[in-house]
Amino acid sequence: MSATSDTTGLAGPASQLAPPTPELRSWWATTLSVTRRSWRPALLVTGVSISVPETALELARVLTEATGHHTANSLFDLATATSSPTAFMLGIVLPALLLIAGSVTATIGWAGGVWALVGPTVTGQPVSIADAYRYGLSRLTSLWPWTLAAAFLLIAGLYAFVVPGIYLLFALSMFSYAVLFEHSRNPLLRSLALTHTRPGRALARWAVVAAVVVAFEAALSLIFGALSLILFGHPGFGADGIGLQGALIDTIHTAFAAPTGALLVIGLTITYADLRTANRS
Predict the structure, then answer these.
(1) Domain-embedded: residue 39
(2) Whole-angstrom Cα distance, residue 97 to residue 101?
(3) Do 151 and 176 touch, CB atoms closer than 8 A?
(4) How far apart are CA 41 and CA 100, in angstroms?
(5) How far, CA to CA in Å, does 225 sit from each of 92, 230, 270?
(6) What is the pLDDT of residues 11-68, one digit of tens each?
(7) Which residue range(s) make up the domain with 215?
(8) Where are the transmembrane segments (predicted)?
(9) Could you say which DSSP state residue 236 is in?
(10) Taking a C-beta distance cutoff of 8 angstroms, is the pair 142, 177 a contact?
């Protein structure tokens, strides 16, 4: 079976990747096993595809700040960024193009990372990095629009109130799998169904994944904060805090955060297989 063949039903991964028992420790053991087996493709496909665009966007911000211009992060910045053609290009057009390109690349990488994990259970053969990217590219037109819709809801929730945004992060965390493997369903509603049919089970697993990702990012922040303190005498991050040199440290920090994408795709893929199996029983 090729990487682009129809995998509707996900019979293989649902039985092969799902933990053998419903206990949280069984889910954790399965996640650790898959991580040991598949961390390389998860990192090289999903992690890199997410971190490279983020690093490019951060680097563009650094270079824009170095020229004396500002990227539009607020209404005030938007007014400043339209003060001249150069400011408009560097402050609005370039970040917007990088955001679009980044979302496309991240979507391809996410789908490819999922296939790198579940493909061997479907085809019986290892999935190469090239095959994973080909699969991700083949699912771009179906997954990207729903990714934008979910991102819009998440951003709206986070800007309105933090708690609704966190809730939406949980409730919509399964939508990509509904797009990739359950083509006849509304993926946002399907994600709600998966996370709310057995909410305690879903929340426990999602919370563990979130805690691991937050802990990893916190450790990185401490490391790069200490590096910034040693080099520049200030533990802050970003151009606003410690100028161009600090922003460069922040850019390197973003690049080193690639494993967060791998952690997410592994943890959520196992969670999806577990919840789908549970909802069928």
Answers:
(1) yes
(2) 6
(3) no
(4) 24
(5) 29, 9, 33
(6) 445 457 888 888 999 999 999 999 988 888 888 898 888 888 877 777 776 666 666 5
(7) 11-280
(8) 92-118, 148-181, 202-232, 252-273
(9) -
(10) no
Structure tokens at 161: 């109130």
Distance (Å, whole) CA 232 – CA 245: 8
Determine, yes or no, domain membership for 99.
yes
Phi/psi for 40 (5° steps) reads: -65, -55
- Whether residue 31 contacts residue 17, with contact meaning beta carbons closer than 8 Å, is answered with no
Predicted model pTM? 0.83
Q: How many domains does the chain have?
A: 1
SS3 string, 74-123, reads CHHHHHHHCCCHHHHHHHHHHHHHHHHHHHHHHHHHHHHHHHHHHHHHHH
Amino acid at 133: Y
Task: Please report how the helices 199-232 and 258-280 are oriented relative to each other, as an axis angle in degrees rounded to 10.
Answer: 170
- The structure tokens listed for 144 are 């990207």
